[in-house]
Amino acid sequence: MNSPLRVEALRKSFGDNEVVAGVSFELKRGECFGVLGPNGAGKTTTLRCCLGLTGADSGTITLAGEPVPDRSREARMKVGVVPQFDNLDPDFTVAENLRVYARYFGVSDAAIRARTAALLDFAGLPGKEDANIRQLSGGMKRRLTLVRSLVNDPELLVLDEPTTGLDPQARHLIWERLKRLLGEGKTILLTTHFMDEAERLCDRLAIMDAGKIIAIGSPRELIAAHIEPQVVEIFGEDAAGWAAQHAGNFAERFEVSGETAFCYLHDAKPLLAHLDAQDGLRYMHRPANLEDVFLKLTGREMRD
Questions:
Q1: pLDDT at 2
Q2: Is residue 107 included in any domain, yes or no?
Q3: Using CA atoms, how far apart are residues 187 and 227, in angstroms rounded to an integer?
């Protein structure tokens, strides 16, 4: 069975700045594949090249069985896209937004009318057919944008930061709907800045930085390969001073960020016993997670 998306040796420069530098990856049918990276890593440009919206300098892209950019339009007819920012038409009702969007894919008004109730039920918006877009909350709009991407029964869903700006309840509802789609056999390509979102949803993911993929695998594989299994975070005004004097005696690796010292290690018991005897320091002991991997590989410095 053909891959929904195959990318080989993709490169794209803007002037002297190479923003995508030889990226290769392939999606498996029925999986959620994540692309993570700091701002400026090349994620958005990679997505735009994959959809045929930006021309690549070199490399090959096969989307939904079609070569891109030669048959970009035909490929996009088989793909659903949820953009980073909602672009619903505020002058239309909920049902009209679905109906007008469906026309771009050759779906008849009668066909989308027959599916509207089921789509809105899936979105958690039953009975909202005649509601104006301005009457919807941010979470409602996001769920409507998600089901709008399903009007053409796509082979692949491309989601660009689908839960940015949502409250925790809305994020969890979106996650539940995406898991349901995966259970139905849909393939999802996801970009996100939320590490917990990537851990919950992604079967595999690629971490990008400076236009390159620097790690690829399942969340568990990446954690096992790149980070010590246990983390102790030490908080307090003197955490940096404590770390400079003591952290090396207990941790295989440690970092200090602000008033927090991060100790990465295999056996936390000696460190925890030591900390219990200290005054003025607080700590949290937890298993390593995907955010630890991300920060180790891409750094803690801010990106514009």
A1: 84
A2: yes
A3: 29
Distance CA 92, CA 282 (A): 54
Type of residue found at 262: F
Chain segment 45-104, per-residue pLDDT in tens: 999 999 999 999 999 999 999 999 999 999 999 999 999 888 899 999 999 999 999 999
Can you spell out the DSSP letters for the chain?
Answer: ---SEEEEEEEEEETTEEEEEEEEEEPPTT-EEEEE--TTSSHHHHHHHHTTSS--SEEEEEETTEEETTTHHHHHTTEEEE-SS----TTSBHHHHHHHHHHTTT--HHHHHHHHHHHHHHTT-TT-TT-BGGGS-HHHHHHHHHHHTTTT--SEEEEESTTTT--HHHHHHHHHHHHHHHHTT-EEEEE-S-HHHHHHH-SEEEEEETTEEEEEE-HHHHHHHHS-SEEEEEESTTHHHHIIIIIHHH-SEEEEETTEEEEEES--HHHHHHHHT-SS-EEEEEE--HHHHHHHHH-SS---
Q: Do the Cβ atoms of 99 and 151 come closer than 8 Å?
A: no
* Domains contained in the chain, number: 2
In this structure, are residues 253 and 296 in contact, taking their beta carbons and an 8 Å threshold?
no
CATH number of residue 233's parent domain: 3.30.70
Q: How many CB atoms lie within 10 A of CB 202?
A: 21
Q: Looking at 188, 218, 248, which one is the last position of a domain? A: 218
15 and 57 belong to one structural domain: yes
Domain that holds residue 269: 228-287
pTM over 0.85: yes
Name the maximum alpha-carbon separation found in the chain: 72
For the stretch 278-290, pLDDT in tens is 888 899 999 999 9
Judge if 66 and 209 occupy the same domain.
yes
